[in-house]
Specification:
337 residues; Rossmann fold; nine-stranded mixed β-sheet; six-stranded mixed β-sheet; 15 strands
Length: 337
């Protein structure tokens, strides 16, 4: 845990040194919201319903599994869904940029490529999200747009806002850089649904989240896939029975959540490698022994991986009623277009 994460989630005396910068951040972000609210800055509504999946804090907390689950559910319901992303870590300079499964993560960023491969839906990278969303509609004939990590991108109009919160909640409750918040907790009162990420355990909803009546989400881990040859599968119990040293590697918002997940599944991990979220994995990051990593890390590690590298995909599980409500709401919205 670095000093910034410690300050945000455990508290530290030196956080107060950042108070002037957080006050400046609050003023600038408040001004930006006011400009959109009053119409001085233009918010663009595209010709299809838009679902925003985001959070009010920095760092990963389960947004990508939510996007994947929505894509799967909406496809099954007959929608032609597309995803627009900022493409954090992407090196492309031409926008809108279509992400296809055969591309590499240095070109696309890790999460857009994961979504394109996992869901087989159109994915577009564009820092100007209205342009990217309209590209999905005109070029891919999408009738529903999911804006990944788009809560604070007010230039794109939206019909449904979903906020994902994990067990770390809101840290010290302060705005950047003093704390991890992009927006204050007041923002939770304005969104359509809050999704509480329980991880792989049935964690109770924290008391300070209960007034918002959040939807509970669990992660369902799948069997291991070989990074070099994803068609090769292995049960976690089979790897555990091999009695050999195992390294767990995670470059996500909360690596400890992944390490704990493996332990809960009965895997004894001899060594852990916690990397920053979106870390560009290199050959030096991968030890020679057996390695188990996240699916997002496998996207970046494929060209460096050896034959004993494995990743564990996860699926987000909600109540059927939550997904049914989203689908029904989208159908009502579509009738207005």
């Amino acid at each position: 845990m670095n000093w910034v994460t410690r300050m945000w989630y455990q508290g530290a005396w030196y956080q107060w040194l950042f108070l002037p910068f957080s006050l400046l951040f609050a003023a600038l972000s408040g001004l930006r919201r006011w400009l959109y609210k009053t119409g001085f800055s233009k918010q663009t509504a595209v010709s299809a319903p838009v679902i925003v999946v985001g959070n009010i804090s920095v760092g990963g907390n389960g947004k990508t599994p939510v996007v994947v689950a929505l894509c799967d559910a909406l496809k099954q319901a007959g929608f032609n869904v597309g995803v627009v992303s900022r493409g954090y870590g992407s090196t492309t300079t031409q926008f809108p940029f279509d992400v296809t499964p055969d591309l590499t993560p240095d070109k696309t960023g890790d999460e857009p490529l994961l979504i394109a491969r996992r869901c087989q839906v159109p994915v577009v990278i564009d820092p100007k999200r209205p342009r990217g969303a309209q590209h999905l509609i005109t070029q891919h004939h999408c009738d529903v747009i999911i804006s990944d990590d788009g809560l604070q991108h007010y230039a794109l109009g939206r019909d449904i806002e979903l906020v994902v919160v994990d067990g770390r909640l809101f840290g010290n409750g302060q705005l950047l850089p003093m704390g991890p918040l992009r927006e204050g907790m007041w923002r939770l009162e304005t969104v359509d649904t809050i999704i509480f990420n329980q991880g792989t355990a049935d964690s109770p909803v924290p008391k300070n989240l209960q007034p918002y009546n959040p939807i509970e989400m669990r992660f369902v881990p799948g069997e291991l896939h070989n990074v070099v040859n994803p068609q090769m599968r292995l049960a976690v119990s089979d790897l555990a029975n091999q009695s050999k040293p195992i390294t767990a590697l995670a470059g996500i918002g909360d690596p400890q959540r992944f390490f704990k997940q493996l332990q809960q599944l009965g895997l004894t991990v001899d060594h852990t490698v916690a990397l920053p979220d979106h870390h560009a994995i290199s050959e030096d990051d991968i030890p020679a022994q057996a390695v188990v990593m996240t699916e997002k890390d496998a996207v970046k590690a494929a060209k460096f991986a050896h034959d004993d590298c494995w990743y564990q995909p996860i699926s987000a599980q909600f109540s059927a009623q939550f997904l049914d409500n989203i689908i029904e709401q989208l159908r009502r919205i579509q009738r207005q277009y």
